[in-house]
Design brief:
about 325 residues; alpha/beta; D-Maltodextrin-Binding Protein, domain 2; binds fe (iii) ion
């Protein structure tokens, strides 16, 4: 191989020299803005650099701050890619014109259609499931069905929820609007509010701790918070229940990425995206936060796999964004704080 390149360059230099040596030079660096923190993202970028020689500079911050930064930098932004959590946030970034559509057969093959933007501006790279967690001393799995059932008066004073201010719950309600229509979705949310054992919690972990402490019987949370909590306190009487298995499946959301509108290294950014959607990168991306790989060919981490398999809702997660404003208003009307 090396001999052949030398032979070619010998005859076609200096033109061939340019072709052989200048292309990789332009692409040796990428800039990524990421709402995933350094400890989650650095091992991944280190592996990419090791494999390809492409150096990745990254900036970590909250998604709102990163989007604001992209907006104010405009065409002068150094960022080639934005990585963030929740389809609602990715949709927002696309809506504000911060991302550009990219075409990649590799990514389209690796990532199921419902986990990426129909307009190709963002792509899910890991899946987070938002499902039911129950107190194993009070309930059996057979007592549970899913989200809609938690609105039934039989759960009065037995339900705990996280605040409606969190995008995860806004996305969950948006997906319920997509599935049932706004009228039924509002009835469900009103039912939840009527059944609350106590005020909504500031985060999923505190909510689950209340379930485990017996303050309520059941609540809704993302699986990776359960994973972290059980790693810390394995004896907690807390069980995971896959919601809506007889219906449309568990509410799933994504963390994902898009190429920025003014990316200086678009081709290279697409290559990184393709790499992130395949093989061991999928594990590096998902396992570190106890999430599920978005690529169905890749097996989850052992801790995650031990929770069992489930049917996930297959409505496109873009609905979480499109219906976000409506979901927020609906939760407000229903008195869900
Ligand atoms: Fe989270």
């Amino acid at each position: 191989m090396i001999t052949r390149i030398r032979f070619t360059t010998f005859f076609f230099a200096p033109l061939a020299l340019c072709a052989v040596f200048s292309a990789p030079l332009q692409a040796e660096e990428l800039v990524v803005y990421t709402a995933r923190n350094e400890q989650l993202i650095k091992p991944l970028f280190d592996a990419y650099t090791k494999e390809t020689g492409v150096k990745i500079t990254f900036v970590t911050d909250k998604e709102g701050a990163l989007m604001q930064r992209l907006k104010s930098e405009g065409r002068n932004t150094p960022a080639d890619m934005l990585i963030t959590v929740d389809a609602g946030n990715l949709w927002q970034a696309a809506q504000e014109g911060l991302l550009k559509p990219v075409k990649s057969e590799v990514v389209e093959k690796n990532i199921p259609a419902h986990l990426r933007d129909p307009n190709n501006q963002w792509f899910g790279l890991s899946v987070r499931a938002r499902t039911l967690f129950y107190n194993t001393q009070k309930l059996k799995p057979a007592d549970l069905k899913g989200y809609e059932d938690l609105a039934d008066p039989k759960w009065k004073g037995r339900l705990c929820l996280r605040t409606s201010k969190k995008v995860y719950n806004q996305s969950l309600v948006a997906m319920m609007i997509a599935e049932h229509g706004a009228v039924k979705a509002e009835q469900i949310v009103r039912g939840w509010v009527d059944n609350l054992a106590t005020q909504p919690f500031p985060d999923d972990t505190k909510m689950m701790e209340a379930v485990a402490a017996g303050q309520c019987d059941v609540g809704i949370a993302n699986t990776y918070y359960y994973g972290r909590l059980m790693e810390k306190s394995p004896k907690l009487p807390l069980g995971i229940f896959w919601a809506n298995q007889e219906g449309s499946g568990v509410h799933v959301n994504i963390s994902g990425a898009g190429v920025t509108k003014f990316a200086k290294h678009e081709k290279e950014a697409v290559k990184l995206l393709e790499w992130l959607s395949s093989g061991k990168a999928q594990n590096l991306f998902a396992d570190v936060n106890l999430e599920f790989p978005a690529n169905p060919q890749i097996k989850p981490d052992a801790t995650v796999a031990a929770w069992g398999t489930f049917k996930g809702n297959s409505i496109n997660v873009v609905k979480a964004g499109e219906l976000q404003v409506e979901a927020v208003k609906l939760m407000d009307r229903a008195g869900y704080k």
